[in-house]
Amino acid sequence: MRKKSKNQTTVQQSQQNVGNSPKFLFLSKSLRDLIYRNGFYRTGMRDFAKNAEMSLSNLYVYFKSKDDIGLHHIEEEEKDQISKLEALMRLNPEPKKFFRVWLISKRTDARKGNFIGCPFSSFSYQTEKLDSRIQNSIQNFTNVWEKLLSSYIDKAIINKYLSVQTNSSLLAKRILSYYQGTVAMWRMSHNNAYWKVLEELIYEDLDQNSI
């Protein structure tokens, strides 16, 4: 059996143990910030290394390929998005209040330049030939996102904020469709009026399903 070189052993150990290290956390934030600003497919490995203030060879210690960086970005975005949504849902069991707070946060981030669109749809729009791992991760998030919203609506029905006749799965799909459409139109037009339209569409559906 061929003996592993010292460099191979070092790389494997680094990849297994960097998850919570300050250096890796800084690198992770740097990579995600650059993807968010520049887009994934317009950014090369040298750009990632430069933005993270490290050599290209050191970057390869943490990520073997650009697709590995893309997968990491999507997985971290999923964790962040779900965590924020769950926190908002716990604090706002009444649907209209939850969506009001959620949309205010989106509009505020958009005005400040901290929100440039859905990171998942952006990945999907950029190419038809996504790495299968990235595509699977995006599809997984879509399913999780829909189930989370559907579950929230079910709880709203139990708490008598919505009618028992409400189809939680269908309502969740409609709201997510409204959201993605709004983000696309807002990005193309830079017209903040689309956020108001989104709010009106969601409230209209909620009113139709109220008790």
Give a quick rundown of the structure.
With 211 residues, this protein is mainly α. Helices cover 76% and strands 0% of the residues. It is elongated and about 60 Å long.
Secondary structure blueprint with pairings:
Elements (H helix, E strand, L loop, with lengths): L5 H12 L4 H17 L6 H7 L4 H7 L3 H26 L3 H18 L6 H8 L5 H27 L9 H22 L3 H16 L3
Helix pairs in contact: 5-8, 6-10, 8-9, 9-10
Q: Calculate Rg over CA atoms.
A: 20 Å
CATH class category of the largest domain: Mainly Alpha
Task: Could you tell me the CATH topology label of the largest domain.
Answer: Tetracycline Repressor, domain 2
Task: Please name the fourth-level CATH homologous superfamily of the largest domain.
Answer: Tetracycline Repressor, domain 2
Number of helices: 10
The biggest sheet, with number of strands, parallel, antiparallel or mixed sense and barrel status, is:
none
Strand content: under 5%
- Class by SSE composition: mainly alpha
The backbone outline, from C-alpha atoms, is elongated
Overall pLDDT level: 86
Tally the structural domains: 2
Termini separation comes to 71 Å
The low-pLDDT segments are 1-17
